[in-house]
Amino acid sequence: MDQVKIAIDDGHDTMKVCFGFDEANNEYQCVSVKSLAIRGMQQIASLNKEAPVYAADGETFTMVPDNALGRHLDTRFIEYPKSALNRVLVHHALVESGMGGRAVNVVTGLPVDQYYKGGKKNIELINAKIANISKPVNVITKNISLANIVENRVMSEAIAAVFDIVFNGDGSENIETFELISRRPIAVVDMGGKTLDIATIMENIDGIYYDRSGTENIGVLRLKEEVASKLKNNFTLNNEPPSKYVEEAIRTKQYEVFGELHDISELIESVCREYVVAIQNAMLKRIGDGSDLGAVVFVGGGAALLQSVFGSAIFSEIYQGRCIIPNHPQFSNAIGMWKYATFVAVESVKSTHEAEAATVD
Q: pLDDT digits over 150-162, tens only?
């Protein structure tokens, strides 16, 4: 049975999935699935379908629709990469991507500070995450088929984005980017849900400059919480503004209260400016002024958010050198993981087999 190569940027806020490239339409096949679940078997009313329920390691989890007003589990805990919750959310993302009943080869990710430890790969955690994804998940809800994960591997999330910009969707090389990274290091700034990852990539993608890479806990979820707090205070609300509506408010700069729409442009831009300053400080800490870099690549949900609020010009305010923003920055890690699994890893295996054959001869 053919295995589908599928990449999942299994973030704390959203699971970003990539499973192919449609050459005819020049589009990546991507899906985003919110990382929303509650513990236990809960009945959530829906006109369309029953909420999916999964079981793993003796725990039961109900997937929460994106339109739910209720609270959901916070994924920002240290053991998340090797937890039953992470495994269930990965399987749910596979189901939502249409992979139910299919054999899949999966790539997931870890933030830079977890993928590396003391300048070397954190083999213990990487293997623990691989083992976790390999463990079983049971589906409680009827009429749902799980994907069969035949193989899985783990990549560093920010580094994955490099493979997005150096390869095109058909596997051909982006000559301009390859030439750039052959002579100068580049930095990837990955604005995720929980963290801000900065990875300074060595020339020719030979590794990372560890002392100029790292992770800060200033993710998009914290920004959304700050916006929610200000909305609650400004409008003197008792209820917490639901996450879905907060995201909508950031995107549209409007917020509806008691059926009346309010312009909150000043509030949104003020909070986002604070986020930009935090990013600038983190970059200064890790890469200095970046004058010795060939470029800085901005990816992640936070990059897409800032782009929607301020436009692409905001990145030139953050870094005065060459800025690279992929067409879909929120999917860049997932797309890069998919390209690595599809084009790079396959060639590595092929080269190994050819070398072994030559040795035998």
A: 999 999 988 899 9
